[in-house]
């Protein structure tokens, strides 16, 4: 089987690396800042004909990744664990009405976000946490459903006793994830998803038993620019896993007949311009003026394209971003007068999605700056998020550029 270094996903070879993304972004009219990564971009390991033919499994893809990029070898077992967890979660979601896994916890548990936890929130968190923990590659895990980072432990007995595990292994990576995003929709059979991001673990030692919480937290407080990999799994009419290693975005679909994720969307390229906007319009009266003006233009046909857009909003970020990647357009959860930093979490929602969207040739912004550039100060920090087709996001940015940031609800 012939293996080649990646140069096939876009017409220009350079377009596959982060700076290539920046180049495409720069071609658009926009003022959005170029993406610059200090880390060398990996070469995507692909088969010579992978962009015109499918049939490559995720496992095979990751084996090839490790061969082409030995420094990324440990990601193979991490992705294998995410894959297994995704299959389990997909089954749990699909069968929840049959197995009684609908509704909220009887204990009325509230997570760190102040949100009531659904049974599936808790179970899917355990599934993903345990799957990642057993890879032996993880240092620290942070999840929407955890109020502190979970450190990975070698001690099997202790593992089940505590939510926060204290001894540190030699794990090279840090994972941040939202195990079941959009879970408020799940009992109605509406699409939900898992979002994940993988960073390198920059902390040599941290021990939660010594109250070393800050040091452990620091492992997870990295900007999107430091992501080594990110992805989502969409639980819908099919189960899709879309991922990036920083060299293009790749989409796999779960084939239940063979029990494998198969590459169905090689080299995802978001259309440069779409016809769909996706925002919770109930919040419109509370948005910044530039955003209100932008949406007014799209909904009436008075925008740059002089065509009226259509509105699609699921209220599950994974579903809304998935559609935006494939069909183009713009998705957003901006700041508003009630939610001054927006609703979406930077670490395990906005930044992983921004990485995927940029790697597919799109853009992701707060309205005032690139999401990937934001240095987090808190694991559960929220951030306004507007992402999608380059021309659409740039049109929105144009509106922001014509007003002063001091007039915004969100002040970075
Ligand atoms: P969650 O992580 O608690 O599920 O909340 C995040 C979800 C996103 O999937 C979605 O974009 C957003 O909340 C929808 O919020 P709203 O119902 O306010 O439109
Ligand atoms: Mg979420």
Structure description:
This protein is of the alpha+beta class and 412 residues long. It is 30% helix and 18% strand. The protein folds into two domains: 74-268, Fructose-1,6-Bisphosphatase, Chain A, domain 1; 276-407, 3-Layer(aba) Sandwich (D-Maltodextrin-Binding Protein, domain 2). It contains eleven helices and 15 strands. Helix 2 runs antiparallel to helix 3 (75-94), helix 3 (75-94) runs antiparallel to helix 5 and helix 8 (289-300) crosses helix 11. Magnesium ion (MG) binds at residues 144, 178, 181, 349.
Compute the separation of the termini in Å.
Answer: 50 Å
CATH superfamily membership of the largest domain, which one? Fructose-1,6-Bisphosphatase, subunit A, domain 1
Q: What coarse outline follows from CA principal-axis ratios?
A: globular
The number of helices is 11
Strand order of the largest sheet: 4-3-5-6-7-8-9-10
Report the CATH topology name of the largest domain.
Fructose-1,6-Bisphosphatase, Chain A, domain 1
Give me the count of strands. 15
Output the helix-strand order.
EHEHHHHEEHEEHEEEEEHEHEHEEH
Do you know the CATH architecture of the largest domain?
A: 2-Layer Sandwich
**What structural class do the secondary elements suggest?**
alpha+beta
Name the ligand types.
Answer: 2,5-anhydro-1,6-di-O-phosphono-D-mannitol, magnesium ion
Q: Could you tell me the mean pLDDT?
A: 81
Radius of gyration: 20 Å
The stretches of 5 or more residues where confidence is low (pLDDT under 50) are 1-8, 10-38, 153-169
In which range does the helix fraction lie?
A: 25-40%
Give the class-level CATH name of the largest domain.
Alpha Beta
| Share of β-strand residues | 15-25%
- Main beta sheet: 8 strands, mixed
Q: Could you say how many structural domains there are in total?
A: 2
